[in-house]
Design a protein that fits this description.
Number of domains: 1
CATH class: Alpha Beta
Distance between the termini: 24 Å
Order of helices and strands: HHEHEEHEHE
Radius of gyration: 14 Å
Length: 119
């Protein structure tokens, strides 16, 4: 028996991602929506150190899951479903920014310069 998602915030996020993908012809949003539709035990859990290592200048990291606080970080921008307290503190202390996935879609509807990390 397959369980359905019940979190209204998650359902709204997935719906907005699919609509943004169609409206702006941005396949990245559809890919993220599909990852969030999978069971949460399969979602990405990525440390800030890994994000900083794989991100290039001017890019925004998108983690379809949770960002964890291990590792060193510079000034980066990250969007994720969830941040650990330590991860948020490290990113903001370094001068970076943390966004929800919906905030990123609103800020960058075309999905340009966004890199999916993890998942």
């Amino acid at each position: 028996m397959r369980r359905k998602k019940t979190n209204p915030q998650l359902l709204r996020t997935i719906d907005v991602l699919y609509k943004a993908a169609r409206r702006h012809k941005a396949a990245i949003w559809k890919a993220v929506a599909k990852k969030l539709e999978k069971p949460s035990k399969n979602w990405a859990e990525v440390n800030v150190g890994k994000i900083a290592k794989h991100l290039q200048d001017g890019e925004i990291a998108l983690v379809p899951g949770k960002v964890l606080g291990m590792g060193e970080v510079g000034k980066i921008e990250v969007a994720a479903w969830k941040f650990s307290k330590t991860a948020r503190q490290k990113i903001e202390k370094a001068g970076g920014k943390c966004y929800t996935i919906l905030e990123l879609v609103e800020k960058n509807p075309k999905g340009s310069k966004v890199r999916i990390i993890g998942g």
